[in-house]
């Protein structure tokens, strides 16, 4: 690369020329020059034998990160990057590592020449010569401000999810209590128990997915397993076949109520009303009418022979049909001799 190139960094060559005694010669010297000039990692070397351990080399990436020119860096201790909000405890760790010639990785708040701050992941370590004598301290700097922000955002989201989970549990408990009291007062305990079953199914579905809700999408398998877990004491009678499909968070309510009604029906009349019956549940992302959709397949096997009801749809069927209609979804039921087969599709909207 020509010396006149705008991207050329001749600091490594000049450093070698100024420190011939440090054995940066031959192939190793060329490699040092190329590595220090071309790497995008900010790197500096400090002299432990000079007063105040000044910087004696800083590559182009270091200058770009801090905003300082070379003449403003060389000869100064690295503390000039510290500022009012730099944590003294982290600075003390650096002092201790220098005193003990230890390797250290630490994150601390540093400041650029223009006064702006950045989180610096500093990797500090000693450099020895062939005889084991300390030559320099090596420091590499990495701006991890975005990483720190992402961590903080994730932590905040988890805290909010936990708080929301607590409040939702309380809300479902209050609703359940109201339903129970109303049922006893009006002599409709059976009906109130059915309603509470639906409330609890929704509660389980939401509780398992709240940690992911802030991202806008969830792994629906978690909700499906939570909804059906009360029915799956015997693993041979409830088989999950689905994958890690991700869907919009709002899909949970539809899936929760539909699967609860199917499970309740299987317990009363279908596969789970027989000691030998089992249910297989599969789910995946697919397409319906050229649009992205969540597809759930419910198959009952080994239970009593079933046939399509002749009566008008019951409460559970009405709820399922209404929920899917509102979600613009579809449900297909096949009353096979060996058990009910159901295919449900729920559009995923903009999450294609």
Topology of helices and strands:
Layout: H1 11-18, H2 26-38, E1 42-46, E2 55-58, H3 60-66, H4 70-73, H5 88-100, E3 104-111, E4 117-128, E5 134-143, H6 145-186, H7 189-213, E6 217-219, H8 220-228, E7 238-240, E8 246-248, H9 251-268, E9 278-288, E10 291-301, H10 315-326, E11 330-336, E12 339-347
Parallel strand pairs: 7-9
Antiparallel strand pairs: 1-2, 1-5, 3-4, 4-5, 6-8, 9-10, 10-12, 11-12
Protein name: histidine kinase
Organism: Altericroceibacterium endophyticum
InterPro entries: HATPase_C_sf, PAC, PAS, PAS-assoc_C, PAS-like_dom_sf, Sig_transdc_His_kinase_HWE
Describe the protein's architecture and organization.
This protein is α+β, with helices and mostly antiparallel strands and 352 residues long. It folds into two domains: 11-143, PAS domain (Beta-Lactamase, 2-Layer Sandwich); 148-347, Heat Shock Protein 90 (2-Layer Sandwich). Helices cover 43% and strands 24% of the residues. It has ten helices and twelve strands. The strands form three sheets. A five-stranded antiparallel beta sheet has the order 2-1-5-4-3, sandwiched between helices. Helix 6 (145-186) runs antiparallel to helix 7 and helix 7 (189-213) packs antiparallel against helix 8. The protein starts with 10 loop residues before the first helix and ends in a 5-residue tail after the last strand.
């Amino acid at each position: 690369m020509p010396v006149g190139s705008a991207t050329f960094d001749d600091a490594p060559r000049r450093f070698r020329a100024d420190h011939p005694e440090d054995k940066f010669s031959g192939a190793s010297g060329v490699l040092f020059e190329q590595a220090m000039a071309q790497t995008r990692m900010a790197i500096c070397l400090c002299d432990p034998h000079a007063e105040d351990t000044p910087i004696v080399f800083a590559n182009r990436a270091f200058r770009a990160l801090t905003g300082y020119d070379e003449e403003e860096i060389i000869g100064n201790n690295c503390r000039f990057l510290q500022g009012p909000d730099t944590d003294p405890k982290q600075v003390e760790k650096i002092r201790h590592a220098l005193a003990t010639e230890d390797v250290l990785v630490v994150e601390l708040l540093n400041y650029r020449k223009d006064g702006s701050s950045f989180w610096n992941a500093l990797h500090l370590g000693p450099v020895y010569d062939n005889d084991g004598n300390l030559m320099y301290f090596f420091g590499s700097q990495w701006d991890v401000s975005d990483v720190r922000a992402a961590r903080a955002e994730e932590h905040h989201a988890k805290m909010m999810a936990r708080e929301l989970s607590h409040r939702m549990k309380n809300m479902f408990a209050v609703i359940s209590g109201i339903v129970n009291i109303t049922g006893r007062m009006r002599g409709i305990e059976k009906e109130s128990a059915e309603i509470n079953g639906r409330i609890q199914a929704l509660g389980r579905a939401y509780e398992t997915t709240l940690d992911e809700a802030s991202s806008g999408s969830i792994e629906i398998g978690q909700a499906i397993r939570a909804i059906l877990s009360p029915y799956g004491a015997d693993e041979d009678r409830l088989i999950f076949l689905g994958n890690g499909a991700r869907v919009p968070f709002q899909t949970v309510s539809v899936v929760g109520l539909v699967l609860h009604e199917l499970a309740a029906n299987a317990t009363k009349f279908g596969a789970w009303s027989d000691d030998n019956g089992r249910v297989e549940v599969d789910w995946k992302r697919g397409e319906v009418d050229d649009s992205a959709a969540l597809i759930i397949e419910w198959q009952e096997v080994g239970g009593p022979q079933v046939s399509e009801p002749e009566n008008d749809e019951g409460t559970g069927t009405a709820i399922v049909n209404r929920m899917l209609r509102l979600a613009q979804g579809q449900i297909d039921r096949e009353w096979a001799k060996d058990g009910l087969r159901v295919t449900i599709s729920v559009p995923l909207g903009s999450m294609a």
